[in-house]
Design goal:
Length: 253
Amino acid sequence: MRLEGMAAIVTGGASGLGAATADLLAARGARVSVFDRDVERGEAQARATGGLFQPLDVTDPVAAEAALAAAEAAHGVARILVNCAGIGTPQRAIGRDGQPQPLETFRRVIEVNLIGSFNILSKFAARLAAAEPVGEERGVAINTASIAAYDGQIGQAAYSASKGGVVGMTLPLARELAQHRIRVVTVAPGLFLTPLLSVLPPAAQESLGQQVPFPPRLGDPAEYADLVACIIGNPMLNGETIRIDGALRMAPR
């Protein structure tokens, strides 16, 4: 699918991987709607890309429907969805005080990363299924997992479970939505220089980057965005999770 003139939605588009994706899609001619909880950054990102900003908690089904409707009113039916919204604060199942992890913190990570991704994707697909195809397809939904779905570290039980769920729903969703000519693909990034890591001292960033076999550095969010563009452009990419991690396999801690 070409990008020029297409309507695209990026959740978590105010910063990190999402912002880099919004930048690239807009630069290649897409009409981008940014969905994010961070109003200040989201509005700035929309101004920078000439697009639309919608404040949104991806776990809210009513707000999600309203945001999708607003994006469609502004740009037409969205053909491209990139789900980048996510959280991942580490927490052990048994804390240093000997107490179990509060269930609500585990549940919140699952709600945002897994249920939130499905919430937006299902509503996006329902709208897109009623649109006319563009060539041989109607559009593509791209979710963001993590290599933690495969080799999660100590303290990442909630995060790994949520991202494992994103990986697990990729193929069944691709199979289901094939009848509507909608593709579903997931990207599983490794260590990238997102806001979470950018606050670390340069020495700590370099140390983390050296864990990557090659290239021995943190990933640039623009490299994630470039992969997204490749997925959009290649209609044979469907029902797959693609690792982008420099061959990194994470140690237990």
